[in-house]
Design brief:
The protein is of the alpha+beta class. The protein folds into two domains: 3-132, no CATH class; 137-266, no CATH class. The chain is 25% helix and 25% strand. The protein contains five helices and eleven strands, in the order βαβαββββααβαββββ. The protein has helices at residues 25-31, 56-63, 114-126, 136-164, 188-198; strands at 9-15, 39-49, 71-75, 78-83, 86-95, 98-108, 182-184, 222-223, 228-229, 239-244, 249-254. The radius of gyration is 22 Å and the shape is elongated.
Length: 272
């Protein structure tokens, strides 16, 4: 975007707390435009920490009091929703090798001029996150892990709601899965047993593939003849649910692609 093609607008940039935002040169260029006689319109950006790693739709439903009919979008490879004049993006922020997710909110004022609305659309089209990540593959991995964290948050909400109506217990998967008390997002039990018991359509991993397991089924790593599971091989990308009957507790985790998420508390599977 060249400055000469943009309407001169006053842009309000609100940054909450101390979370750094990496804007592309195009957005920074637009944000700095001011001139005498500028339009009274404004485009505002706000950044809100998202420690629970909610999807933009989940965050919207939880935090916006007056809700409309949000539509799904993708902004720079990240999930987003739009409700009228406002867009909500769930994107990662990598700072000092730490992985955060924020909700980035961008909106424009009511009765805005058509040129302002056009600028808003251009901002959405050119918005870039993670400009401090130099390799394309690393950024793709961060995007995928952001989606994984949002999916895991949805699964945990469904499990916790289940526990509230089942005396604090969770799906034991005593039948209907290859391994008692376990389900993996590539197994039929993920949807047919676990998802059915929770009453939701469970999300699946963005890649959703197990690594190589010779002598076992290529998709499930299950040997129907011996009735044995090979275990989760290296280079797998799946979600894993495990039930602990002794403690009446569960773990649900994902096999992450970026190097920033390494513990179960961060959502990463560490013991397979």
């Amino acid at each position: 975007m060249k400055a000469g093609k943009l309407i001169l607008i006053s842009t309000i940039l609100i940054i909450t707390w101390f979370f750094a935002v990496c804007y592309s040169a195009k957005i920074a260029e637009t944000s700095s435009l001011t001139a005498s006689g500028a339009s009274p319109d404004a485009i505002a950006i706000r950044v809100v920490p998202n420690p629970d790693h909610y999807s933009p739709l989940r965050w919207y439903k939880k935090n916006i009091k007056i809700q409309g009919s949000p539509q799904s979008l993708v902004i720079d490879g990240y999930e987003a929703v739009r409700d009228g004049r406002t867009v909500y993006v769930n994107a990662a922020n990598i700072s000092n090798n730490n992985f955060f997710t924020n909700i980035y909110i961008i909106s424009y004022n009511q009765e805005a001029e058509n040129k302002t609305i056009d600028v808003f659309s251009q901002l959405l089209s050119h918005w870039e996150f993670n400009t401090n990540i130099l390799l394309s593959q690393d950024k793709d991995n961060v995007r995928a892990d952001t989606k994984r964290l949002a999916d895991l948050a949805e699964i945990k909400i469904a499990l916790d709601n289940y526990g509230k109506t089942h005396n604090g217990d969770f799906p034991a998967l005593t039948v209907g899965s290859y391994v008692v008390g376990k389900s993996i997002s590539v197994w039929p039990s993920w949807s047919a047993t676990l998802g059915k018991e929770l009453g939701i359509t469970l999300p699946i991993d963005p890649v959703n593939k197990l690594g190589t397991c010779l002598g076992y089924d290529d998709t499930t790593c299950w040997n129907q003849t011996t009735q044995k599971f090979a275990g989760v091989p290296p280079n797998s990308r799946v979600y894993i649910y495990t039930y602990d009957g002794t403690k009446k507790s569960y773990n649900v985790c994902g096999l992450m692609e970026s190097s920033y998420l390494t513990t179960l508390e961060q959502g990463a599977c560490i013991s397979l």
